[in-house]
Amino acid sequence: MAGLEIRELECFLVLAEELHFGRTGERLFVTQSRVSQLIGALERRVGARLVSRTSRRVRLTPLGVRLRDALAPAYDALCAAVDDARDAARTVAGDLRVGFQGTADDRLLAAVTAFQDRHAGSRVEITEIAFSDPFGPVQRGEVDAAVVLLPVEEEELVLGPVFSRQPQRLAVSTRHPLARRGEVAAEELAGVPLICAAEPAGEYWRRAHAPTATPGGQPIPRGPAVSTLQEGVWMIAAGRGGMLLCAPTAAHHRRRDVVDVPVTGLPDTSLGLVWHRDHENARIRAFAEVVAATVP
């Protein structure tokens, strides 16, 4: 029924129990006249009298009895559904699926442990996220939150704590001319094809981690597109290009035929915890608080 008012139905059900306009008003924290207005509005909506009222008593009409008997179970189910949704939104205990892009280092794992210790009954399930799809698992509901390389510009995502700011390093093959350098200037990237993330990573995100120009405006050739960091390391070892990585990720993927050299003149990389705006709940917020307090 178009324009159905839940307050009218609630008032009718309370009056059906009390059979007294004054006591009904007291239970609903409204005046007796407001009770009369709500019941009158419902009767006009139905098109017939639901309540018979005299100076001595209040009773339901036969149609009022019929409506009460049909409406009460539906109203109880509606209230139970709202209570269930509220409890789910406020409950911290339970499983939390967290995706990690790159390396879940000891600091992040310490945050996971701290969260589980602080909130009895909670459990964090860790899932690896593809380098080329940093936000997809959160958008598709495959994980509840994700630790990803910044930036993030998707409007539907909430950016929580930002942490692990790290200087960038250029990973290249040991055969590359820059491999023996103590450091590399950002302008020197003009001679290095940079391996980048494949689709579906957005272009703005790809450019952040594989820029197409130096800070001074010199073009940087684009190298192969890869789906995972491991694929990128294989391409580096094969001499197909270089890759900009943060220090912990470079150390995690280190191998004998690949070296990483500090790069000057580029902004630090950062990680952030993100989640979908429509799926936010107390469990995600509690985990974000622990991460913010635990991970520098």
From TrEMBL:
<dbReference type="InterPro" id="IPR000847">
    <property type="entry name" value="LysR_HTH_N"/>
</dbReference>
<keyword id="KW-0805">Transcription regulation</keyword>
<keyword id="KW-0238">DNA-binding</keyword>
<dbReference type="InterPro" id="IPR036388">
    <property type="entry name" value="WH-like_DNA-bd_sf"/>
</dbReference>
<dbReference type="Pfam" id="PF03466">
    <property type="entry name" value="LysR_substrate"/>
</dbReference>
<dbReference type="InterPro" id="IPR036390">
    <property type="entry name" value="WH_DNA-bd_sf"/>
</dbReference>
<dbReference type="InterPro" id="IPR005119">
    <property type="entry name" value="LysR_subst-bd"/>
</dbReference>
<protein>
    <submittedName>
        <fullName>LysR family transcriptional regulator</fullName>
    </submittedName>
</protein>
<comment type="similarity">
    <text>Belongs to the LysR transcriptional regulatory family.</text>
</comment>
<keyword id="KW-0804">Transcription</keyword>
<dbReference type="Pfam" id="PF00126">
    <property type="entry name" value="HTH_1"/>
</dbReference>
<feature type="domain" description="HTH lysR-type">
    <location>
        <begin position="4"/>
        <end position="61"/>
    </location>
</feature>
